[in-house]
């Protein structure tokens, strides 16, 4: 049994299914009491900051979802579970997203708009975009706000990737350098300890030798004994 239309939204009918209009309603989160037969959901121009796990799990008919012009920073890995097969259009443009987990858009067949977000260009984002069907009209507006390689900041992500840049290779190189630095640090510590240990033993040996030298010899002890006897 479906829910009635949320108080903060306006609902209408399209081909026997429900269109829910919740744009510009000062919402801070996605309504949980949406009609079960919702086919289109408009949540643009609100103050939503997060898409939690299974936010739309009770909307099996959902085809169109507009979350543009919010303040979304976080998209949970299971955000679109339950609608990944039905969804045909997803608008996440003009938000505050820097990155998303690879699992968040898994199995989505929707045309997606991700433009005008402060994306951080690195390996995970590259892997996410490789699997998506981006909206061709806004694809050049998906830009690197920051990047693991600073020279690509401000450039369209697709343009950078099409030029042959592979952020995952850079990630692996960075990891390799970090491992090398760590191993070199441990090696330096081991060498320093060995040097300290050798020098410490040499000092002990020198002191022991000086102690032995300071002891009277056996011939001197015999002479002293003969002197006392006479």
In short:
By secondary structure, the protein is α/β, with parallel strands linked by helices.
Helix content: 25-40%
Number of helices: 4
Poorly predicted parts = 171-178
Task: Tell me the strand order in the biggest sheet.
Answer: 1-2-3-5-7-8-10
Q: Give the mean pLDDT.
A: 84
Question: Which sequence of SSEs, written as H and E, runs from N to C?
Answer: EEEEEEEEEHEEHHH
For the termini, the CA-CA separation is 126 Å
Biggest sheet character = 7 strands, mixed
What spatial form do the alpha-carbon principal axes imply?
elongated
Strand content: 15-25%
Record the SSE blueprint.
Blueprint: E1 10-14, E2 17-21, E3 38-42, E4 50-51, E5 64-66, E6 74-75, E7 89-91, E8 111-113, E9 119-121, H1 123-130, E10 133-134, E11 144-147, H2 157-162, H3 167-214, H4 218-229
Parallel strand pairs: 2-3, 3-5, 4-6, 5-7, 7-8, 8-10, 9-11
Antiparallel strand pairs: 1-2
Helix pairs in contact: 1-3
Transmembrane segments: 177-198
Family: Belongs to the LRRC3 family.
Domain LRRNT: 4-40
Structure description:
There is one protein chain. The protein contains four helices and eleven strands, in the order βββββββββαββααα. It has 230 residues and is an alpha/beta fold. Strand 1 and strand 2 form a beta hairpin. The longest helix has 48 residues. Helix 1 packs antiparallel against helix 3. Helices cover 32% and strands 16% of the residues. The strands form three sheets. It has a seven-stranded mixed sheet, with no helix packed on it. A two-stranded parallel ribbon has the order 4-6. A two-stranded parallel sheet has the order 9-11. The radius of gyration is 35 Å and the shape is elongated.
